[in-house]
Specification:
alpha+beta, 9 helices
């Protein structure tokens, strides 16, 4: 049994979802049924929900605590070639503030509450209790690793883990992506219209915008579920227009989502509903 496999099994036994990494901190290839997104599922797994193809697959989403998967045939070669063990922080309700150099560490010590720290090759991981959306380069040398990403396991670290502070959450919400025009495919309809008045649809869109705008965490998941709800209620009768979709995309981008993530979430919601 390799050192990395032993570490992975120990973490899984403590309910930490793990996966093997090859050299360069890169996950091993997807399973044959979804390599290159052949499964038509969720591109880059930036939208929530389980994949329908066989597991393990899709980088961070492959992280598991199942010892049968970890020691199974699919990963047997991976562990022999693995350069590191990774885990899914958001999967256990954690956020890693990845500080990549000395200046970033100095900033954290001035700005953030003390918490558990783990030394890395070039800097430190500061680990907080609580999950949030992930983002790279929130400031020079600082990445946020929580939901829908993986982080290298570099040991338990030292210090007492503290609750995720607003100072970390605000690193994302204070710098939203600029809202750009989008082109999406809106269902052309053909079904029976259930909208008694135009105000019914307008109220639904306004409520959806509000749901996205008020999301304090799990923005990726909130956007996808909101798109799914809107399309389920209004997507088959032809009343939903590009203008309505653009309003939802604008709300999501204001929360920090990229136009690509919005398009993927919309497409995946349509696929889930058979549109």
């Amino acid at each position: 049994m390799t050192t990395h496999l032993t570490a992975a099994l120990d973490l899984a036994n403590r309910s930490v979802p793990v996966l093997p990494l090859r050299a360069g901190k890169v996950p091993f290839g997807n399973c044959p049924d979804c390599r290159g997104n052949a499964c038509g599922g969720r591109p880059n797994m930036k939208t929530p929900g389980p994949c329908d193809c066989p597991r393990p697959c899709h980088a961070w989403a492959a992280a598991t605590t199942d010892p049968h998967v970890i020691t199974g045939l699919t990963w047997s070669t991976a562990w022999r070639q693995a350069a590191a063990v990774a885990y899914h922080p958001g999967g256990i309700g954690l956020t890693v503030v990845d500080l990549d150099h000395a200046d970033a560490i100095a900033w954290a010590r001035r700005t953030l509450p003390a918490t558990r720290t783990v030394p890395t090759t070039r800097g430190e991981h500061w680990i907080y209790r609580g999950a949030m959306p992930s983002a790279n380069a929130v400031r020079d040398g600082v990445d946020i690793k929580s939901t829908m990403v993986y982080a290298r396991w570099l040991g338990p670290g030292t210090g007492t883990m503290t609750a995720l502070p607003d100072a970390v959450r605000s690193l994302i919400v204070e710098k939203p992506s600029p809202v750009r025009p989008v082109t999406v495919s809106v269902p052309t309809g053909g079904g029976e219209c259930r909208h008694r008045t135009p105000a019914y649809l307008e109220r639904g869109i306004a409520m959806a915008e509000q749901r996205i705008t008020e999301a304090a965490s799990a923005v990726h998941a909130t956007v996808y579920r909101t798109f799914l709800a809107v399309l389920s209620a209004h997507g088959r009768c032809g009343c939903l227009t590009d203008t309505h979709a653009a309003r939802l995309f604008a709300a999501a981008q204001t929360k920090g989502e990229t136009a690509r993530h919005c398009t993927d979430a919309w497409s995946n919601a349509r696929t889930a509903l058979g549109m």
